[in-house]
Amino acid sequence: ELDYPLIEGKNMIWLDVPSALNQEVKNGKASYFRELEVSAIRELLLKLADSVSRANADREEGAAVEIGITTGYNAQRRKIEIMLDENENELGAIRRYIQVGTVDSLQGKEFDIVILSAVRTREYGFWNVIDKTEEWDLPRAGRQRTCVAFSRAKKCMIVVASELFRNKEAKVKTPAFAEFYKRCEEKRDGRCCVKRFDKGGIV
């Protein structure tokens, strides 16, 4: 059980980042990033920094609490890495226990805490398990990415996403996200919860 600030022993946390405040941006290489989700992840890590670092200082080598941050988009991965570099002093010792990668690159790896950044606010993109396009077999890619993304966490999974991934359409096009949100909303004996991030922080 991870008894850290914000997590407080929970196994599943949905961190809602409303699309009305910020939407994803497409970069020149057909990838996407969303700045407000990067800010939400920064806030999460700063709240965890001291307690995780202290806990790891008391653990034997190889038993440290590790954090994986993942996303479906290289542009978002780069934004998160830049954020980590810019906040290295504030994050302190926890930085060495954080690994960032796309869902594809983290396949086969596990972490005590996984933070998943969904990025999209208008379309489901690579997470879509239904629609095909001329360029992408989205159902196959979406199922594969979703399976990997939701199976990396050993103790706590945190999904950072907009309301797009919990609406009625999401139940069909991204059912894993919709089901995760449903469980968080139900609280499940205090093991799951929904939180919200806006420009004032996490509530």
Folded structure, characterized:
- The protein has 203 residues and is of the alpha/beta class.
- The strands form 2 sheets. The chain has a 7-stranded mixed beta sheet, with helices on both faces. Strands 2-3 form a two-stranded antiparallel sheet.
- The chain is 33% helix and 22% strand.
Task: Name a few traits of the molecule.
203 residues, alpha/beta, seven-stranded mixed beta sheet, two-stranded antiparallel ribbon, 6 helices
Task: Reconstruct the topology from this structure.
Layout: E1 12-16, E2 25-26, E3 32-33, H1 35-57, E4 67-71, H2 74-86, H3 88-91, E5 98-102, E6 111-117, H4 138-149, E7 153-161, H5 170-173, H6 175-186, E8 192-198, E9 201-202
Parallel strand pairs: 1-7, 1-8, 4-5, 4-6, 6-7
Antiparallel strand pairs: 2-3, 8-9
Helix pairs in contact: 1-2
Main sheet makeup:
7 strands, mixed
Secondary-structure element order, N to C: EEEHEHHEEHEHHEE
Number of helices: 6
Q: What's the total count of β strands? A: 9
Question: Going across the major beta sheet, what is the strand order?
Answer: 5-4-6-7-1-8-9
Using the CA coordinates, give the radius of gyration. Answer: 16 Å
The residue ranges in which pLDDT falls below 50 over 5 or more consecutive positions are none
Structure summary:
This protein is α/β, with parallel strands linked by helices. It has helices at 35-57, 74-86, 88-91, 138-149, 170-173, 175-186, and strands at 12-16, 25-26, 32-33, 67-71, 98-102, 111-117, 153-161, 192-198, 201-202. The two termini are 22 Å apart.
